[in-house]
């Protein structure tokens, strides 16, 4: 008898976990659908959108020795470019690793690390940082995904 009730209570917990997961996945689905259909709020720029603007303004290219005569180095990480590495050429003709520059631009300086030429329009940078300063509330998707993975981890650990 006790084994049966224990089983039933496990079943109950399991179904609660299951429905919570289902609900969260529905929320994410709805979010992704509405996110696509609704116009992006101009005052809020997520990291993804910010990186997209960077990409639009300064498309990623691959470094090839053949194009540049002298050895060039990324002045952010101070290492020489390797053949085929992802780089960005800025309008000021300075070149950096894609990742180095993206990290730099996300830290609040939307200017060339070398000559301080503006890389992005001021309003884009302002909006991005306003978004970043809004403390984690605002039900970011990362939060939901974290909760989801925690639940997944919990349920698999506990029951399966
Ligand atoms: Zn670099
Ligand atoms: Zn520059």
TrEMBL record:
Residue ranges crossing the lipid bilayer per the database entry: 14-33
Protein name per the record: RING-type domain-containing protein
PROSITE patterns reported for this sequence: ZF_RING_2
Originating organism: Carpinus fangiana
Domain RING-type, first and last residues per copy: 74-116
Keywords for the protein's UniProt record, in alphabetical order: Membrane, Metal-binding, Transmembrane, Transmembrane helix, Zinc, Zinc-finger
Any one GO molecular-function label of the UniProt entry: zinc ion binding
